[in-house]
Fold each of these.
Amino acid sequence: MKNIYSNIYKNSPKNLNKAKKFLKKNKIIGVPTETVYGLAGNAYSDKAIKKIYKLKKRPKKNPLIIHYDNLKKLKKDANIDNRFLKLYKKFSPGPLTFILKKKKNSKICPLANAKLKTIAVRFPSHRTIKNLLKKLHFPLAIPSANISGKISPVSSHDVFDEFGKNINFILDGGMSKIGLESTVINLCGITKIMRPGAISKKEIAKVLRKNIPFSKKFSKINSPGLLRKHYSPGIPIKLNCKKSDNRAAFIVFGKKYKKNKYTFNLSPKGNLSEAGKNLYKVLRKIKNLDFKRIDIVKIPNRGIGIVINDRLKKAAH
Ligand code: TXA
Ligand code: MG
């Protein structure tokens, strides 16, 4: 039988070198990270960045996150300050993205940051992408590997579900451990959280020793969270449901729900981190079945629950 997933490659030294070759030729590949899977391209190449926007059908005004494996490389592209260093020390590599001032002589392709004066940067902790970045002389622009506005992928098969053979190479790194996109924090001017993620407002406030607000503005510089419609499975979603019927997929959380073909439990144990890891997987599964609606129970608004509720609100918009 022919393997339909023939563009998915397992994580091995040989395949890392293959990935490097693709990237050096300014081609786009699928890559794992600890948050979600991404589409990676050379951040210094116009050609690569244009391909990313085209593949994702992403509006040009929505900038990409640039990924690095070390501070020395970042310093060529962005100005850093004390605030950044404190947070970097505590949380990087990991699921935190910083918005910094772009250096005038940076080689980052202006399209990659929507011609803004700022760039978003992240140091991913997933071993595969870290090792790949180490091999390269340029940073990678890596947006989530989904068509703009759709559900983010958390496995190599999800990337295939979004793009099929439109990309030639998807590097497999197992299920994403976190399953929700990184926290985005603005460090240009007043410190603000633009998108909630696994690194919480509380943890950040503790390091900076002050309260950090969530950004409420729907500015032209749409930050992840700030696009109104996002993470969409393409059918209506109703939040805070107590019960459901047989036409809807019922997403639940905790042990009191019976198993049946309409019910999808994010975490039978009632563990919010597990629920976060499963959220996009479950939404994608339901999307590929024949449901007309999704009903979802109330998810506790604490810890990762805050991130889950942020994404659900946008998916339901
Ligand atoms: O966890 C993640 O961050 C994943 C993995 C693959 O690293 N990436 C990701 O990228 O979520 P993306 O493109 O799906 O979301 C990044 C968001 C964009 O929606 C954009 O609005 C915001 O970051 N962003 C990027 N550069 C920005 C900038 N200079 N100012 C404000 N927001 C920015
Ligand atoms: Mg995205």
Note: Confidence is low (pLDDT under 50) at residues 218-222.
Amino acid sequence: MKMVIKFAGALLEDLGAVKSLAGQVAWLAKQGHEILVVHGGGRVFTATLKRLGIESKFVAGLRVTDRQTRDVAVMVFAGLLNKRLAAAITAAGQPAVGISAADAACFHAEPLVRGDVQGSLGYVGYLTGANREVLASFWREGLLPVAPCLGLGPDGELYNINADHMAAAAAEYLEADQLIYLTDVEGVLRDGKTLSCISCEEVGRLVESGVVAGGMVLKLEAAKRALGGGVNGVHIVGGTVPDGLLAAAGAAGSNRSAGPTAPGTRVLREMTSVGIPAACSAA
Ligand code: ADP
Ligand code: MG
């Protein structure tokens, strides 16, 4: 299977989680899956800007990313965090290569333009393409690519991309079978309980009713996009759940599975009365 696995930035700050997840990614790669890891790192980025005394302007909740701010994004995402993750996966036995959009132009971006925002957001973009040949060449050689949330613009500049949207768009462009979001909560929660399945149709209701807010809204929008773009399975799972990634990837039944019921939340194209997966009935 071809899989895109997105690591939340918060998980990269937890070295125990990095080690455990790197082991699971390495194990999946050894089963023959073609894996692209995409990661964010918003909190480390914000902390680094603060440390450097660089102040950010926000418009409609979005950071205006000037050149200086963008350079810090490249340092943090394509530097520190990307290398930390590639090193951990490699140490777990699966040689991994940290690549940013600049390397062999592997991820393309266009500047993000928002109707509700006057003027430019600077170096903030959205993914418009992925270099499938370059990525396939890594997989052929038994290497696992790890990419930060950056894209190369038509002007040759790097643009910061929302990592959830980048993962969804990359999954679509690579025709991935599965997209797995590893996050800092156990899944999509309602009244403190994890919803084991939700349909695209339900996403709107959960947002309107305020059950889902903040970063989870973006994640579910991205999940919908991926499903609409032909990705068959989208799963949101806690990165610190023991063997959660393996279970989400459908490794259940293997001797490394956490149990018969996958943890986290599956996002489904539609909820049909026929063929509802067993896991859904527990919701
Ligand atoms: P990530 O780094 O994985 O993208 P985000 O912080 O962007 O994480 O999004 C996940 C966050 O969304 C959670 O930590 C939580 O604070 C928030 N959130 C809001 N509503 C929900 C919900 N119903 N279920 C789970 N998380 C939610
Ligand atoms: Mg997020």
Note: Residues 164, 215, 218 surround magnesium ion (ligand 2) (CB under 6 Å).
